[in-house]
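Protocol step 4 of 6: structure prediction from sequence.
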Amino acid sequence: MSFPITGVGAVASIGDTPDEIFAGLCAGVSGLAPLRGFDREKFKAQQLFEIDDRSGEGDEPGRATRFLIEAVRQAAADAGLGEDLSGVPVLVGTGLRELRSLELWWRDGIPFDAADLDFGPALRERFGALDAHTFAGACSASLYALALGWDLLEQGEADTVIVAGCDAVTESMFGQADRVQFDPPPAVRPFDRERQGTILGEGAVAVVLRREAAPGRPVRGWLRSVAVNCDAVHPTAPDREGITASIRQAHEAAKAAPGDIDLVLLHATGTPVNDLMEAKVTAEVFAGARPALTGIKSQTGHTSGSAGLMSLLVALSAIASGRIPPIAGLADPLPEAAGLRLVTDTPLAEPVGVAQVNAFGFGGVNAVAIVAGAA
């Protein structure tokens, strides 16, 4: 079984729409910039992949919600749904919810209602979305939400579902990363020998899934499977067996062999352990197959809960355009990636029929999606 994706929307540090984001990735645009919302004197690291939307100096509340509302608006318009979503479930995966607003309330006394930590109230107010749910998880949160959306369609609980992911960087999360990374990485360099770690980013993504394609409406792609598991082996380090199982489960559910996959959107955080394990698993699973491999975090940063869907949008754009953006900053691939077909330097012009999207989160929450072209 496959479900049509009939609408997409997104915002990130490198673009305000899915088309802008994909064009920026192909053009080598980076969203990395000096800190805008935090006091630079408090931190060793001085850069983030922030969305430049603040109206004045310092930070302001409600930004994650603002990102989400815009992504949902775009996706609903793209799918021809309009702005009344009272009959459409909206499922949001996130890492941090609206925690930054809570920080500003605690520190500066800026008014904030704890009910608005989740995105349901804002979605009801803006779109009349009566069936809205926030799922706070790790870096695979938006693909977990996608799996729940699949279940609703498959079980006949809904005909249309909007699945989204969003995150704004919080000062507590940034500070935690700043303490762990003794030498802040100057850039994100996925799968490179000299990779030093990841840098957080901001973004929101939304997609519209339907049980059947709507007459007269374009289909952006087909969701062929979503596989999720939680191996719970280690708080931060990925487990080889866990992520291998999630990939093989996704292939089995999509009725796709490794040789059927043309493109893999790697999780590719630029961290030493994650990239090493993902390279080993990819080499094992795709032994004898040669899909193109790319990743986007060197240009968007690690967008936390929205990361999985952000990569999925790039996969859909690659399928539609026949262009695959390169892994920016990858100059010397790690040895475990020898033999893998990593896209580097410039976009690769190549037909893509089926793509795999990886998202591996803290605690072993793994998720893999398979998408295909509309033909």
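Step 5 (inspection) to follow. The chain has a mean pLDDT of 95.
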